[in-house]
């Protein structure tokens, strides 16, 4: 959330986050270069250049695996939310490391021939119609191009220019890129090296990431409210909503709704943050404002507007309490509409407690 | 996340897991066998 332009808004958390990631990369590469030669003993020990190529390639795969696990982990367990906060910087670094891997590959394998290195890389293996002999390099090149595109458009300028829905759709290209990277390793390093470590780590990493995404999607599917009178949706007893937190309701049509409780008051906003479409309902109330768990964008519960001087807005929804149950009207109100929050009276509290017990 | 993105995400991951899983299993199965070094004949000096 910003009223003035700055290319990158640094703060202490971001600096610490970036320093930890950078330190992790340096430590990983140093450890790999020191210990990996033990994996390839014998008559044909790998050279330092090849070791460097493998170190950066392995590090890149590991970074992409971690970055893709952060999203579903944060949805499954709130303790992982801080990792989401500066994920874009992590993403840019995740482009730089495989870019260095590609640079070293071009320099080592393709710089001494008559052809330009990139042409040599793409033309050296013509078995495009074979599965097992498929030129795995092209898979890595395509994945790297996707990572470049995502790193180049990661800035908030591109988010504002493209709009959150297109920006988000573009950045979902990271998933097929990860699949290409898995196949790049499976048809490349896994074919030349016979160590069981490669298939175990590669298959294990992909299965973990895919499993986490599928699990998080399944969990998010729960929470669809039952339909009450006049098409309002039943959310549940008031005290079933955590104080300062929300219950997310999925209406039959339209966006999800985050129903928050602020002490004895209940209100509802769209679950979709205006910044990066983050899940507002997974956030909490801070200083009386609904706060997005991704980047801290804030909205008033009464009207869905960010407090001045900020200008972001999300749609508010009407809420009522009937028969001891919170109900929400699934039709979004125009942006900026002020709504009356539902008040939890003693009778509702009693029923809520009863319903919870 | 918008509902449209959520639907794509929900369909994409099982499909990606299946496609990559099959390709991974094939690449593991079709790996060329480890070359066996021929026994060295003892040649009398």
Question: Mean pLDDT score of chain A, rounded?
Answer: 87
Derived from helix and strand composition plus strand pairing, the structural class of chain A reads alpha+beta
Secondary-structure element string of chain B: H
Distance, first to last CA of chain B: 78 Å
What is the β-strand count of chain A? 12
Order of helices and strands of chain A: HHHHHHHHHHHEEEEEEEEEEEEH
**Count of DSSP-assigned helices of chain B:** 1
Major protein interface: A-B, 36 and 26 residues
Alpha-carbon distance between the two ends of chain A: 41 Å
**Per DSSP, what share of the residues of chain B sits in E-state strands of 2 or more residues?**
under 5%
Mind describing the biggest β-sheet of chain B? Answer: none
Tell me the Rg of chain A in angstroms: 25 Å
Summing up helix and strand content along with how strands pair, one would put the structural category of chain B as: mainly alpha
Secondary structure: helix percent of chain B = 55-70%
Shape of chain B: rod-shaped
Q: What oligomeric state do these chains adopt?
A: heterodimer
Explain what this protein looks like in three dimensions.
The complex is a heterodimer of chains A (357) and B (45). Helices cover 48% and strands 12% of the residues of chain A. With 357 residues, chain A is an alpha+beta fold. In chain A, strands 3, 4, 5, 9 and 12 form a five-stranded antiparallel sheet that branches. In chain A, helix 7 (156-162) crosses helix 8 (164-171). The two termini of chain A are 41 Å apart. The model of chain B has no long low-confidence stretch (mean pLDDT 83). With 45 residues, chain B is mainly α. Chain B is rod-shaped. Chain B starts with a helix and ends in a 16-residue tail after the last helix. Chain A binds chain B through residues 131-132, 164-165, 168-169, 172, 175-176, 179, 182-183, 186-187, 190-191, 194, 199, 202-203, 206-207, 210-211, 213-214, 217, 220-221, 254-256, 272, 277-279, and chain B through 1-6, 8-10, 12-14, 16-17, 19-21, 23-24, 26-28, 30-32, 34.
């Amino acid at each position: 959330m910003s009223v003035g332009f700055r290319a990158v808004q640094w703060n202490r958390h971001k600096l610490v986050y970036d320093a930890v990631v950078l330190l992790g990369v340096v430590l990983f590469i140093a450890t790999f270069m020191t210990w990996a030669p033990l994996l390839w003993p014998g008559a044909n020990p790998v050279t330092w250049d090849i070791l460097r190529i493998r170190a950066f390639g392995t590090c890149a795969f590991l970074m992409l695996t971690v970055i893709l696990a952060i999203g579903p982990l944060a949805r499954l367990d709130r303790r992982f939310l801080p990792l989401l906060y500066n994920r874009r910087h992590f993403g840019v670094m995740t482009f730089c490391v495989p870019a260095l891997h590609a640079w070293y590959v071009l320099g080592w394998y393709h710089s001494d021939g008559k052809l330009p290195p990139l042409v040599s890389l793409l033309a050296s293996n013509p078995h495009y119609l074979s599965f097992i002999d498929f030129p795995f390099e092209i898979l890595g090149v395509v994945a790297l191009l996707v990572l470049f595109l995502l790193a180049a458009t990661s800035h908030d300028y591109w988010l504002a220019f493209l709009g959150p829905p297109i920006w988000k759709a573009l950045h979902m290209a990271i998933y097929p890129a990860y699949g290409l990277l898995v196949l790049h390793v499976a048809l490349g390093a896994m074919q030349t090296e016979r160590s069981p470590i490669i298939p175990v780590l590669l298959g294990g990493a992909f299965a973990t990431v895919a499993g986490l995404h599928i699990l998080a999607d399944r969990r998010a599917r729960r929470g669809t409210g039952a339909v009450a009178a006049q098409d309002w949706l039943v959310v549940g007893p008031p005290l079933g909503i955590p104080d300062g937190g929300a219950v997310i309701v999925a209406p039959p049509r339209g966006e999800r709704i985050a129903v928050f409780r602020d002490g004895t008051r209940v209100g509802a906003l769209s679950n979709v943050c205006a910044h990066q479409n983050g899940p507002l309902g997974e956030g909490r109330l801070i200083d009386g404002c609904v706060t997005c768990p991704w980047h801290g964008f804030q909205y008033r519960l009464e009207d869905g507007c960010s407090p001045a001087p900020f200008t972001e807005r999300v749609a508010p929804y009407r809420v009522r309490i009937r028969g001891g149950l919170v109900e929400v009207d699934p039709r979004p109100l125009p942006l900026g509409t002020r709504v009356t929050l539902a008040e939890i009276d003693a009778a509702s509290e009693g029923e809520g407690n009863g319903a919870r017990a | 996340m918008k509902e449209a993105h959520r639907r794509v995400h929900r369909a994409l991951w099982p499909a990606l897991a299946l496609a990559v899983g099959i390709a991974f299993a094939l690449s593991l199965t079709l790996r060329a066998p480890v070359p066996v070094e021929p026994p060295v004949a003892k040649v009398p000096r």
